[in-house]
Structure formats: C-alpha cells, structure tokens
Amino acid sequence: MGNKKQNFARFGVATKGLVYFLIGGLTAFGAFGLGGQKSGSGNALDFISQQIFGKVLLIITAVGLIGYVFWRWYQVFFDPKDMGSDFKAIVKRVSYFISGAFYGFLAFSALKQVMGSSSEGGGNSFLVKMLDYKAIAITIGLALLGKAIYEFYQAYSGEFREEVDEAGLSEKAKHLVINAAKVGFTARGIVIAIMSFLMFRTVFSSSSEKVDKTEAFGFLQNEFGSLVMGIIAIGLIAYGVFMMIKAKYSSLSID
Questions:
Q1: Distance CA 120, CA 43 (A)
Q2: Contact of 68 with 100, CB cutoff 8 Å
Q3: CA geometry: angle at 23 spanning 20 and 26, to 5°?
Q4: Which residues, 6 or more positions from 36, have their beta carbon under 8 angstroms from its beta carbon?
Q5: Kindly report the CA angle at 81 between 75 and 84, in degrees rounded to 5?
Q6: Rounded to whole angstroms, what are the CA distances from 31 to 70, 96, 187?
Q7: CA dist 46 to 22, 69, 110, 111, 129, Å?
Q8: Measured between alpha carbons, how far is 225 from 125 in angstroms, rounded to an integer?
Q9: Which of 72, 83, 194, 247 could cross-link 100 (Cys pair, CB 3.0–4.6 Å)?
C-alpha cells in the first residue's frame, strides 16, 4: 500500500511539473513571437485538450492533480516528516492545505472540460469570485504575498538541496538541477508576488480585474517588456522540470 501511495504522490508532483512546464512554454513562445500566448493554468488545460486524445489526456491530468492534492493533504493531516506543531510548522501545513485546495479546483476544472465546459482558468476563477468579499480577497492577497516570500526563501536558503541530494545524481547533473530549482523558485516567486499586488490593487480600487498568472504575465509585459516576460516564463519551465525530477528521484515521505 505504501508503494501505491508513493507512486500516486509522485504522479501528482510530476503532473504539477507538467502544468508549469506548459504555462512557461506557452508564455515564452508568445513572448518571443513563436505562436504561443500569455498563459495560466486554464490555458495549460486548454492546450492539453487540443491534442490527440485530448479528453483522455485531460482525465489523466485530473487524476495526476488529485494525486498532488493527496500528497499535500497527507502532509497536512499525517505530518510524515514530523514537522511538529510550532508556528513555522502550522504555517507550512496551512500553505500545504491551500496548495492542495487550489490543485483540487484545477482537477475539477479539467474534469469540467472533459464534460464540455470551459476551464475558466481553473482554480484562479475561484480567486476572481472571492473578490466580491473584500476581507477574503485581502486574506488571499496576503496569502499570495506570503507564498511569494516563501518561494524566494526556497530559492536562496538551499532548503530544497536535501531533495536533490536524495536523488543520487552525478555532481554535474546535481549542479544543473540546483540551478534550475533556483531559477524556477525565483520565477514562481515573482509571478505570485505580482498576483498579490494585482489582488490588492483590485480590492482597493473596487474594480473587477481578473487575478491569475495570465494577468501577472500581462503586467510583466506592459511594465518591463516581452523579453523580461519571456525570461520569467523560461524560469517557470525550469520549475516544471525540477518538479518532474523531484517526482522521479526524491523521497516524498508517504508512509
């Protein structure tokens, strides 16, 4: 049973990596005039649905995302790494729960597309609906800001290196993976920080602006140009690759 849970969790982490790989790839292609477009999770699902056997691929993607939800919520409720119950551990477990909830919404969105409904941006459409409730929207904005700070911490504290060391890679491969992780966490932190800014701007301007990765990329393009947007998008590709490597090699602590 342990191996089945491990494999399900690994499939989930790899699926998250694939989603980020597609988000970064489609956006980078758009930035450099190669036929893509600014993309978020919903666009990644749309891309999958347009491939041969698109509905089958969407079902597989939804199952993978549910595997990621399982892994995150297993960490929340069973604490396999013995994080304890101090403030830092509680913050981590709350963030894991929110992460699981987001990818649960995204899995639901994928299944809706299988049944013929639009993806509507996956879990991000949930954020848009929450803008009707200012206190909740502010809370989400603060949560996004906290997540962005944590991504930068992940990039430069070296906390993720333990997972790389577990992989048993050669020194050259390990160096490449570490650099990919740093770039990936940094790019993700930038995108999430912009989403936090857009959330606060929407709340305090009483507008109905959409808040998702697509809008974050649009902000980057408008303020800093397509080249910067493309570089950040490539960073998300690196993050996706890191997640896939993590899924294959590192311990996910599922007992």
A1: 9
A2: yes
A3: 140
A4: 25, 26, 27, 28, 29, 30
A5: 90
A6: 35, 32, 15
A7: 10, 21, 9, 12, 21
A8: 26
A9: 72
Q: Which residues neighbour 123 within 8 Å (Cβ) at sequence distance 6 or greater?
A: 41, 101, 102, 103, 104, 105, 106, 109
Going from the C-alpha of 101 to that of each of 6, 165, 176, the distances in angstroms are 20, 29, 31
Can you tell me the distance from the alpha carbon of 245 to that of 17, in angstroms, rounded to the nearest whole number?
A: 9
pLDDT at 118: 59
The pLDDT of residue 129 is above 60: no
Distances (CA, A) of 176 to 100, 200, 232: 28, 36, 18
| 230 has pLDDT over 90 | yes
> Does a structural domain hold residue 242?
yes
Look at phi and psi of residue 240 and say left if phi exceeds 0, alpha if psi is from -120 to 50, else beta.
alpha
254: in domain: no
Domains held by the chain: number = 1
Q: Distance (Å, rounded) from C-alpha 55 to C-alpha 41? A: 16
Task: Look at the chain and count its residues.
Answer: 255
Average pLDDT score over the chain? 85
221 is a domain residue: yes
Q: Which residue range is the domain that position 33 belongs to? A: 2-249
* Residue 121: pLDDT over 70: no
Residue at 255 is within a domain: no
Nearest Cα neighbor of 164 from 69, 246, 68, 78 is 246
> How many Cβ atoms are within 10 Å of 177's Cβ, its own excluded?
22
